[in-house]
Amino acid sequence: MSHLTAARSNDGISGWRIDAQPTLSAEPEQYPEELWGVEDARIVRLENLGCFAVTYTAYSRAGPLVALAMTDDFRTFERHGSIMSPEDKDAAFFPRQFGGRWALIHRPVPHAAGAKANMWLSFSPDLHNWGDHTVLLEARDGAWWDAGKIGLSPPPIETADGWLVIYHGVRNTPAGAIYRVGLALLDLEDPRRVLRRGDEWVVGPRATYEITGDIPNVVFPCGAVLDRATDELRLYYGAADTCVGLLTAQIGDVLDWLHTQPAPAAYA
User: Fold this and answer.
1) Domain 1-19+27-137 fold
2) In a 10 Å sphere around its CB, with 0-12 CB exposed, 13-18 middle and 19+ buried, how is residue 120 labelled?
3) What are phi and psi of 208, to 5 degrees?
4) Could you tell me if 90 and 151 are in contact, meaning their C-beta atoms sit under 8 angstroms apart?
């Protein structure tokens, strides 16, 4: 049964201290949507509320859905239950409000034949009641690396150029699915406006521990840290669902590359 366990480090790279017991376990007696566990947490600091919001996937017979917990120390949590109905996952808040409303990126999965799993954007005045649902990024068609299914990876990161969105794309092949990472840029004041979207993926499974594991050929980031003193971007990711890896880049290099990519258009 999946659960969440905190690992703590002074520098975010070495000397990790892993909690001896699960930090956030499923509570199916009170929250039946967690019957099969909790997983894939995205964590955002909400300064207006003075706490961290943890959006995670609660999984049960009804399918995966988005649930919310709040914490200020990653030892105790205030659960708020489900905030999106199944089937939905890959969700995270923006760290600040837009016109007095919170914004959430998430990925509902339609069950109609031929329907694609796209990234959506929704708004709420209180983190619980959601509306103004709109498609943010569409999975592409055909032989694209992000055809058929995409989803948010870490929470969006605020930069001078816009909101940096790091997302995963899944391509199904005869040998199985391949998970890769791509980039997009959203307008700072209106996150519904997509300014840039990379045509190419920027990270794919290459190392042995990314190619071979419980789920092969997977790089799946859920967390990122931008060190604004050094402009270093740290991307923490699951490798083949077996271990955790770390990628680093200079945020200026990432944004420079994005600015070489096209503005959004209809992808065939």
Assistant:
1) Tachylectin-2; Chain A (2.115.10)
2) buried
3) -55, -40
4) yes
